[in-house]
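Notebook entry, structure prediction.
Reason for the run: the old model in the group folder had no record of what sequence produced it. Starting over properly, with the input documented here first.
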Amino acid sequence: MARVCQVTGKKPIVGNSVSHSNIKTKRRFLPNLQKKRFFFAEEDRWVTIKLSTDALRTINKNGLSAVIKGMRAEGIKI
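New structure, fully documented this time:
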């Protein structure tokens, strides 16, 4: 599976690692992804979502049903 958040779409970005002598080499910045199980009460089942910690805050704020509804509108299968 790719390192992509299923809710926000965050994925790795590319940047430079800069040494003390200012030598730049390419590196990847990975998103803080977590696998989390939620109980989806509308369908009476557990769903496992691979999400970033930023998306976890979004779920706490907006609710799981609103987030899943948005994900399904984008065509993500849950």
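Summary: The first strand starts at residue 13 and ends at 18.
The old model has been moved to the deprecated folder.
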